[in-house]
Amino acid sequence: MNLAKQLPITVLCGFLGSGKTTLLRRWQLDKTLRDAAYIVHDLSEFGVDAELLIDENSVPQAGQLVDRVAALHGVHAREQLQTSVASALGEIADLKPIPSQVLCESTGAARPWPLIEALTQDDRFYLRHFIVTVDALNLHRDFEDGRVLTGEANLSGDMALRYAAEVLAEQLIFASVIILTKIDTVPKAVTDAQVRTLRKIRPQATIGLSAQAGLLLSQLNATPAPNYSDLKNRAVQFGLNQSTPTANEVDSIVFRDPRPFHPQRLYDVCQQQLGTGIYRTKGYLWLASRPGDVLLWQQSGSQISFELTSVWAAEAVHNRYKKLLPIEVEMLKQQLETAHPVFGDRHNTLTIIGLPDACRTFAAVLKDALCTEEEIVAWKRGKSFSDPWPKSP
């Protein structure tokens, strides 16, 4: 089929926590992408990345298209990838108005060739970009500014970093564009050295620099689309044509609990127990010191961020600032009728991604950071809790 009649697909790949979601949320604000459709390929069992892209009143449904966002998480990202992508592409092709393009965010643990095969199975679409994001700080701190990937430097004996290097190197093999993210976290001389090394790995790739999601998709318009036959030859050349959709060594578990985190103990856990085997943690949580705040937690390596996304209904129902109409308060009360009798709709739901043993260990120490029954009683009485977490960005 003529490319002019096909819908372009741009894939955002890159290892866990390298800034894919941040870039995609920034691009979503671009008026030229207002009608775009999205495919979110997520290793997690719940679609937090898809949830960040859809309308705030909608809920992502695994394997389905909601608000132009197809949430392919859990089995849809692994065992059913080919059929789930086929279904998503079919629904996208039927959208009115027809999207100008499709943006696909892939899990950081993705093996790229199975994803490329799945996305190119429908001849109404073609691969416009295969973008790999690379975290400049992690590349500097863990991989000798990329020289580990070229074999110019030796990797430490840390097995977690070894697996991460293998996944990143495999993703870079297929890159038509490499975006070096978080360049504001390292000196310019380091960034320059990283660019030189990345050019050795993928001489034909376009390399872009991004600080705080400062690079726009339109800036890549001059970059030619990758050739499918070339990509397939690369897969065969490196023995990747029979790859599984995600790295076998990387696991994902979900931590769920309605109780609040004790802010100081959670802080201590992250300072003392966050090893290299935990690649990524993301999801929603609440602190006993901030009972009204729905906090989006994102951890990548040693970097942790909190983002205030909304207010829990259990707090909003009190209408302390008198901004809600009586009917809105009543709707919140109805919503809370089936919620937890003490915490309401407040809850913690976190996806932990990393090596299997490390994930299980970290989930256990997170549980120890939750408030005890005695502390919950004190919280209900209005006790203040020590909170070392930043209050603003």
What does this structure look like?
The protein is an alpha/beta fold. The protein folds into two domains: 3-237, 3-Layer(aba) Sandwich (Rossmann fold), CATH 3.40.50; 251-380, Hypothetical Protein Yjia, Chain: A,domain 2 (2-Layer Sandwich), CATH 3.30.1220. The protein is built from 14 helices and 13 strands. The strands form two sheets. An eight-stranded mixed sheet has the order 3-4-2-5-1-6-7-8, sandwiched between helices. Strands 9-13-10-11-12 form a five-stranded antiparallel sheet. The chain is globular and about 65 Å long. 41% of the residues are buried.
The helical percent reads 25-40%
Can you tell me the number of structural domains? 2
Oligomeric form? single chain
CATH superfamily of the largest domain: P-loop containing nucleotide triphosphate hydrolases
Q: What are the main properties of this structure?
A:
alpha/beta; Rossmann fold; 8-stranded mixed β-sheet; 13 strands; 23% strand; globular
